[in-house]
Amino acid sequence: MFMGEYEHSLDSKGRLTIPAKFREGLGDSFIVTRGLDQCLFAYPVDEWRALEVKLKSLPMTRSDARAFVRFFFSGASECEVDKQGRILLPPKLREYAKLEKECTLIGVSNRVEIWNTRVWEHYSSDAERSFAEIAENLVDFSF
């Protein structure tokens, strides 16, 4: 399980250090793709395969299902961790998430999210203000 929040800088070549605690769960090679809310999702290979099975079960007769699967898989890239604990993020993924220099990596249960720090701070601030309301809407989950 991934949890916690870490800040790291993207270098001029597009390399990002992955926190040691996240590297343990992600492994030496993992999948990074476009996520929701303008961030990137990083999945260990076994989680990616499980997600792939679920996405394959979506009805391809629905245009929204086709669009989501296309968007999700076309942005996916296998990233390998180098000896310094860094990955090279492809330019298209950096562009999508507006990753420039300061990045925030957060653990979200079965995945790691990679955010532009300013975007994360704004998103987090907004979510924090409505946290009680969000929890209220999730009452069926017994929080």
Automatic annotation (TrEMBL):
Primary subcellular site in the record, as a coarse category: cytoplasm
Record-linked InterPro entries: MraZ, MraZ_C, MraZ_dom, MraZ_N, MraZ_sf, SpoVT-AbrB_dom, SpoVT-AbrB_sf
Alphabetized UniProt keyword annotations: Cytoplasm, DNA-binding, Repeat, Transcription, Transcription regulation
Keyword Transcription: yes
Ranges for domain SpoVT-AbrB: 5-47, 76-119
Pfam families: MraZ
Subcellular location: Cytoplasm, Nucleoid
Highest taxon of the lineage: Bacteria
Keyword Repeat: yes
Alphabetized HAMAP family for the sequence: MraZ
Annotated family: Belongs to the MraZ family.
Subunit structure comment from the entry: Forms oligomers.
Protein's name in the database: Transcriptional regulator MraZ
Species this chain originates from: Alicyclobacillus sendaiensis PA2
Encoding gene (name): mraZ
